[in-house]
């Protein structure tokens, strides 16, 4: 999944996926540090994946599917419907992801949201 999101890494998608929000925001606003950092990240993905595997609990809500839905359909709130957040899913659908701000918020917090859902269900 990290490699798929790396394709969009110049906006920081893979960094957000691996729980690296600060550098994700930096990549988002600098186009992956003018694409240089984006290329270097291709070599760093295995290490980021190992760190993320230790940090987040797997469970009923799948991280990969939620990230695919956020990355490609986030403005429509499909990832929120998937997580069972119907009200905010409808809100995103009607406001195009709260005018993009909600989508950026979810890039920053999606791993934590899924981790909370999975912990509550265990």
What is the H-and-E element order? Answer: HHHHHHHH
How many E-type strands?
Answer: 0
The description of the largest β-sheet is: none
Strand content of the residues, in percent?
A: under 5%
Q: How would you state the average pLDDT, rounded? A: 93
Helical fraction equals over 70%
Q: In the residues, how many domains can be counted? A: 2
Question: Rough shape?
Answer: globular
Description:
- The protein has 122 residues and is an all-alpha fold.
- The chain has two domains: 2-55, no CATH class; 63-121, no CATH class.
- Helix content is 78%, strand content 0%.
- It is built from eight helices and no strands.
- It has helices at 2-6, 13-17, 21-34, 36-55, 63-73, 78-82, 86-99, 101-121.
- Helix 3 packs antiparallel against helix 4 and helix 5 (63-73) runs antiparallel to helix 8 (101-121).
- The chain is globular, with a radius of gyration of 14 Å.
- The model has no long low-confidence stretch (mean pLDDT 93).
Give me some keywords for this one.
78% helix; mainly alpha; 2 domains; 8 helices; globular
Topology:
Layout: H1 2-6, H2 13-17, H3 21-34, H4 36-55, H5 63-73, H6 78-82, H7 86-99, H8 101-121
Helix pairs in contact: 3-4, 5-8
Membrane topology: Multi-pass membrane protein
Transmembrane segments: 25-44, 65-83, 89-110
Subcellular location: Membrane
Provide a brief overview of the structure:
It is found in: Membrane. The protein is 78% helix and 0% strand.
């Amino acid at each position: 999944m990290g490699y798929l999101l790396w394709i969009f890494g110049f906006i920081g998608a893979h960094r957000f996926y691996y729980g690296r929000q600060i550098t994700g925001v930096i990549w988002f606003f600098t186009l992956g540090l003018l694409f240089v950092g984006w290329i270097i990240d291709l070599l760093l993905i295995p290490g980021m994946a190992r760190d993320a595997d230790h940090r987040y609990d797997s469970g009923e809500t799948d991280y990969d599917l939620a990230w695919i839905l956020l990355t490609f359909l986030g403005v429509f709130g499909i990832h929120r419907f998937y997580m069972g957040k119907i009200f905010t899913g409808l809100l995103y659908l009607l406001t195009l992801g709260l005018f993009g701000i909600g989508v950026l918020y979810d890039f920053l917090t999606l791993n934590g949201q899924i981790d909370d859902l999975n912990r509550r269900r265990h």
